[in-house]
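Technical annex, item 7. During the second reporting period the consortium partners agreed on a shared format for inverse folding records so that results from different sites could be compared directly. Each record opens with the tokenized structure and is followed by the designed sequence. A conforming record, contributed by the partner at site C, is shown below for reference.
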């Protein structure tokens, strides 16, 4: 009797030990595959598009803009230049690589794979990008300046020193000295110029500078030295960005409070190295004790093992629920002083991380539950095999339930795979019966000028096809022939660039991108960025054919003839897609559904031309617009501009052009509410619905939601 009591007590203790050990192993396995896995953290960042949101939401948030402007103001590049090229200076892939490296270091430290935590970021690629951008805009700023004759070599040398000093300060000199030099004088002048450059690059620059001066080409000599001289300001700015004395490493660990991380590391190290293997060993021993001390019947032993495994899994699930109840989905409290966009991003990251952690824990819990259920099922089947045949009959209700489920599946599966979906136009069934002139379209201003295509001063980030995928249904494109050097200045005089930036771009592009034949999409100057017209039109046609329920509009700022444009569309194979507007601009337009049914879903307007193709109409015969040269959000107005008033189509120019595109201001004016407020105001003032909402940096803010709301309001 005493022996059987001890055995039952041993069996009970073994069962409890097995349950607890199964739960501990499940929990540690979850931690190992989630919070202690670098891949887990990277996938959370990817799921929430953290890097894109950093560029398009956080850095342009109006609440953080003053800090961003102050930071950028310390760099030796104009703010608009740097912000429009932000993804060039700090590419998302570079930021991702830097972040992944720090995640790897932190996880290795927490798992005990390294004894010390070293978090350091190599900023040299970023500094190199800033330097490269600096050179693009300032390095060759002298190449287009007028020369001034000097009477003698001392005067020439004095003026040359003044010029290089101005370039080194980031300012274009007023003029360049000119004098025929002997070889000795050229060498002396080269020495004077090279003193402005860092000592380590003088030897490299000397041959080019000397030859240029011997040939009387002061501009080339100064352009070669200018970037190196100017780089001193870049280096000073980099120092303010916490670069270390070795020239580019930011020691993050030195600026963080790591005591809490060290305590976590001590706990995880103990858990993974001691608790987990001990729990596994004890669990196996407890299950073995259950088996060898169990009843004589093997099915009953299996049932005991099964219940122990299932109970361990259920305990794990219970722990997950307790964690969710006590910690919640936002375990880290974020300061209310942080910008709303940063709070949203961190909240979303926390929520996703907690959800994935709990999902991993529940999955780990499910494994022993399923295994235990299988063992219990085997035990039950083994016991049933010993019963008489007449006692082994399935019940009526289980059979009926299985039949009902099968019938439901037969009825529902065909419906689930049926493509009998309501017709959709422009992404919405409600828009099919709406006339073209009653619909609002998200419009990409200077759609071809993208970061992805490496334009200098881009106004959009994604490629044109990606813009269309993001909801854009109207593209503003600029067509050009590649300009000759003498045409650059004339072209820039007509652009929206400020005078200083015009001079800088003129100078920077002289030695780059020689003229190319054919038709191009450029922003003011093809040498500052260009993509071929015909291949781009083919891509647009491919996108339209892949999206048969969409209507697309092109508004072309045309610097090429209507005949050339017609030829380009014909060569791109778009003749079957272009729509011919009514000759009378006052006639109502067809519905989107009618345009889609006809197959003519590409509307093409020109800012200057009017034909000769019947489908290529002057935009301002049919449309009116607001001004577009706003230098700050406070200047946005609704007053008439090109096209006058009373037209059926209405273009809302909703972007800032202060010293080029303003990514920071886009963060303020591209919000859903800001777009809606201005659209409503302009509709009241101008007496007609807004049809085209043209924005820069369309991935910043949520202009798409505002356009969707405008269309919903018109129901």
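Designed sequence (site C submission):
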């Amino acid at each position: 009797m005493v022996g059987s009591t001890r055995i039952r007590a041993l069996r009970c203790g073994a069962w409890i030990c097995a349950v607890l050990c199964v739960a501990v192993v499940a929990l540690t396995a979850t931690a190992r595959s989630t919070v202690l896995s670098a891949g887990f953290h990277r996938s959370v960042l990817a799921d929430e598009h953290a890097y894109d949101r950093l560029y398009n939401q956080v850095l342009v948030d109006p609440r953080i803009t003053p800090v961003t402007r102050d930071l950028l103001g310390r760099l030796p590049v104009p703010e608009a230049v740097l912000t429009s090229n932000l993804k060039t200076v700090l590419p998302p892939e570079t930021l991702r690589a830097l972040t992944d490296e720090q995640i790897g270091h932190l996880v290795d430290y927490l798992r005990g794979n390294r004894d010390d935590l070293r978090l350091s970021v190599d900023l040299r690629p970023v500094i190199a990008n800033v330097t490269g951008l600096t050179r693009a805009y300032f390095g060759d700023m002298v190449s287009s300046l007028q020369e001034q004759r000097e009477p003698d070599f001392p005067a020439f040398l004095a003026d040359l020193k003044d010029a290089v000093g101005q370039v080194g300060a980031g300012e274009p000199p007023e003029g360049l000295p000119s004098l025929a030099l002997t070889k000795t004088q050229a060498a002396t002048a080269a020495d004077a110029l090279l003193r402005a450059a860092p000592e380590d690059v003088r030897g490299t620059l000397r041959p080019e500078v000397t030859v240029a001066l011997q040939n009387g080409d002061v501009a080339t000599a100064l352009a070669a030295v200018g970037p190196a001289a100017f780089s001193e300001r870049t280096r000073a700015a980099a120092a303010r960005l916490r670069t270390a004395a070795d020239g580019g490493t930011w020691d993050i660990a030195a600026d963080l409070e790591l005591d809490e991380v060290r305590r976590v590391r001590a706990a995880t190290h103990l858990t993974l190295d001691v608790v987990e293997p001990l729990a596994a060993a004890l669990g196996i021993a407890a299950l073995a004790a259950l088996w060898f001390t169990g009843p004589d019947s093997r099915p009953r032993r299996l049932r005991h093992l099964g219940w122990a495994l299932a109970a361990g899994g259920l305990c794990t699930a219970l722990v997950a629920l307790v964690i969710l109840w006590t910690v919640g989905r936002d375990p880290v409290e974020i300061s209310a002083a942080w910008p709303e966009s940063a709070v949203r991003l961190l909240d979303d990251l926390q929520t996703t991380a907690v959800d994935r952690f709990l999902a991993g824990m529940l999955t780990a819990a499910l494994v022993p539950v399923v295994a235990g259920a299988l063992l219990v099922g085997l035990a039950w089947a083994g016991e049933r095999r010993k019963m008489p045949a007449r006692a082994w009959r399935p019940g009526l209700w289980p059979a009926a339930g299985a039949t009902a489920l099968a019938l439901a599946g037969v009825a529902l599966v065909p419906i689930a795979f049926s493509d009998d979906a309501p017709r959709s136009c422009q992404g919405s069934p409600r828009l099919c019966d709406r006339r073209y002139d009653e619909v609002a379209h998200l419009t990409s201003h200077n759609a071809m000028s993208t970061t992805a295509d490496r334009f200098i001063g881009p106004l959009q980030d994604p490629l044109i096809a990606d813009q269309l995928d993001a909801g854009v249904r109207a593209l503003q494109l600029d067509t050009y022939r590649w300009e000759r050097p003498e045409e650059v200045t004339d072209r820039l005089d007509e652009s929206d660039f400020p005078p200083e930036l015009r001079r800088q771009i003129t100078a920077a592009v002289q030695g780059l991108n020689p003229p190319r034949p054919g038709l191009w999409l450029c922003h003011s100057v093809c040498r500052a960025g260009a993509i071929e017209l015909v291949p781009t039109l083919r891509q647009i046609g491919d996108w339209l054919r892949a999206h048969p329920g969409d209507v697309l509009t092109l508004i072309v700022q045309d610097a090429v003839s209507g005949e050339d444009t017609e030829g380009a569309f014909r060569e791109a194979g778009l003749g079957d897609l272009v729509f011919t507007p009514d000759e009378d601009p006052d006639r109502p337009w067809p519905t989107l559904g009618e345009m889609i049914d006809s197959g003519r879903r590409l509307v093409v307007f020109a800012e200057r031309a009017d034909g000769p193709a019947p489908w290529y109409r002057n935009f301002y015969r049919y449309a009116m617009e607001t001004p577009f040269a706003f230098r700050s959000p406070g200047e946005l107005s609704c007053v008439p501009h090109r096209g006058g008033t009373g037209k059926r189509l209405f273009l809302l120019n909703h972007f800032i052009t202060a010293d080029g595109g303003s990514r920071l201001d886009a963060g303020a004016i591209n919000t859903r509410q800001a777009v809606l407020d201005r659209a409503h105001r302009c509709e009241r003032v101008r007496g007609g619905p807004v049809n085209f909402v043209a924005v820069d940096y369309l991935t910043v803010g949520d202009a798409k939601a505002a356009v969707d709301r405008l269309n919903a309001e018109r129901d």
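The chain is about 55% helix and 10% strand. The chain has three domains: 2-119+253-382, 135-251, 429-478+533-713. All partners now use this format for quarterly exchanges.
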